[in-house]
Amino acid sequence: MSKTMIGLDTAKSEVLATKLNELLATYQVFYTNVRGYHWNIKDVNFFELHAKFEEIYTDLVEKVDEVAERILTLGYTPNNAFSQYLSHSRIKEEIAVSSAAACLRGTLEGFKVLLTQQREILALAGDADDEGTASQMSDYIKEQEKLVWMFQAACQTCAN
User: Fold this and answer.
1) Which one of 23, 25, 74, 159 is CB 3.0 to 4.6 Å from 88, fit for a cystine?
2) Is residue 3 in a domain?
């Protein structure tokens, strides 16, 4: 069995890198959506939501960098073209969304998608004995589960 430069199974690392590139795509599209919510929000909760969306997209862009660096650590190349992101993301881009309910709903759904994807990668990382990727996904999951709870509470008044 061939090993990567950090001592992991090459075949399993390649699968992980592919899944991480898909996650990177989802993060990039979600980041762009949340940035749009920040710019376009209109509602009585403008000030609170405008600030919250900035906090979220700032965190998302940090995670984009961390995911890309993990792909590099595994010995592979992170995708960097937006065309790649759009074709691999599990989140669709949203254009000119401005109502508080729609922005909250989009953010909640985005985090749910990320959680699903990260749990899949966590399982693969465990199978590959890749503690670095597992730890990263575990940290993201813990943080985002709390955000889902908070957005779910805020979205109780969102129209479906």
Assistant:
1) 25
2) no
For the entire predicted model, the pTM comes to 0.95
Contact of 41 with 98, CB cutoff 8 Å: yes
* pLDDT, tens digit, 9 for 90 and up, residues 131-143: 999 999 999 999 9
N-term to C-term CA, the chain: 51
4 in a structural domain: no
**CATH number for the domain that contains residue 100:** 1.20.1260.10
Can you tell me the distance from the alpha carbon of 34 to that of 1, in angstroms, rounded to the nearest whole number?
43
Q: What distances in angstroms separate CA 4 from CA 54, 67, 70, 75, 131, one per listed residue?
A: 38, 18, 13, 7, 14
Q: Judge residue 110's burial from the number of C-beta atoms within 10 Å of its C-beta, 0-12 exposed, 13-18 middle, 19 or more buried.
A: buried
